[in-house]
TrEMBL record:
Gene Ontology molecular function terms on file: acyltransferase activity, transferring groups other than amino-acyl groups
Domain of life where this protein originates: Bacteria
Domain N-acetyltransferase: 123-268
InterPro entries (UniProt xref): Acyl_CoA_acyltransferase (IPR016181), Bact_Acetyltransf (IPR050832), GNAT_dom (IPR000182)
CDD domains xrefs: NAT_SF
Keywords: Acyltransferase, Transferase
Name of the protein in its database record: Ribosomal-protein-alanine N-acetyltransferase
Pfam families (alphabetical): Acetyltransf_1 (PF00583)
């Protein structure tokens, strides 16, 4: 699309940047592609960037070109342990917006202490894959509206994006739900990790605001972890926003340990 821009630097790297598509930039040095930059727009409208470069000069040139071409604010997500990436993005002006912890969660009830975590009176747990789509979508809309009215869906895990029609649930086979008086009042989403069929990741636990603080989230977690344990899965992964004190307390209370963390960075 755009013509190449040659940008020699103090480190002797002469890198030409070309925007080759609406969402892609290439960095070329000595006729070799030494870096690629990409954009992706989330359903909530935010623009996320990613850059894969051979060396720092290529990264900086790509970042400069992309930032010059794109409207702000802009976002990216990095592994917090990747200090090199953090330095590069922050050199381009990005700052930390939020942290998401990745927990390793034991499934053995003798470790979690969830063996006796029964649902509250009148609440039943519907196993993963058994939820009816209509009531699940109705609960999804209620929870989404409640989140938007408080912290905003942008504070939810990156793996739980809303779709353009406002619906976030797309596959009932990934959800366990809590039911009461003929309607769904809570949900837990669990997925299989790509290329690791024995690995499960808990993406989201959400309870309707008028049914919270009754033990429903704990009962959902007990059910799902117990099912994993009976299938021979010893640990699961979970994504938790650092600022979600209730979720942090829930997982750490069952023996989950922090294994890693991701940072969402923003350039305003």
């Amino acid at each position: 699309m755009d013509s190449a821009r040659s940008t020699p630097g103090m480190d002797d790297h002469a890198v030409a940047i070309t925007r080759v598509a609406e969402t892609q930039w290439h960095a070329v040095e000595d006729d070799l592609t030494v870096g690629r930059g990409y954009t992706s727009r989330r359903p909530d409208g935010r623009m996320f960037l990613s850059i894969d470069a051979w060396h720092g000069a290529a990264f900086d040139r790509l970042a400069d070109a992309m930032l010059a071409d794109l409207p702000k604010p802009l976002y990216t997500v990095i592994d917090e342990a990747d200090l090199d990436s953090a330095v590069k993005w922050k050199r381009s002006g990005f700052t930390t917006r939020r942290r998401e912890w990745e927990y390793l969660v034991p499934t053995d009830p003798q470790i979690t202490g969830l063996g006796s975590a029964l649902p509250p009176a009148g609440v039943t747990i519907v196993a993963v894959g058994r939820a009816e789509k209509g009531p699940l979508l109705a609960l999804d809309r209620v929870i989404r509206d409640e989140v938007e009215a408080t912290v905003g869906w942008r504070e939810m895990p990156a793996e739980v994006p809303p779709h353009p029609d406002g619906v976030t649930t797309t596959d009932p086979s990934e959800y366990a739900v809590a039911a009461q008086a003929g309607e769904y009042v809570g949900l837990l989403r669990v997925t299989t990790v790509s290329r690791r069929p024995r690995c499960r990741r808990i993406r989201l636990i959400a309870i309707r605001s008028d049914r919270r603080r009754r033990g429903i989230a704990r009962a959902l977690l007990a059910h799902v972890l117990g099912s994993m344990h009976r299938c021979g899965i010893e640990t699961a992964w979970a994504d938790v926003n650092e600022s979600n004190e209730a979720a942090v307390a829930l997982f750490e209370g069952v023996g989950a340990r922090r294994a890693s963390s991701n940072l969402e960075l923003v350039l305003r």
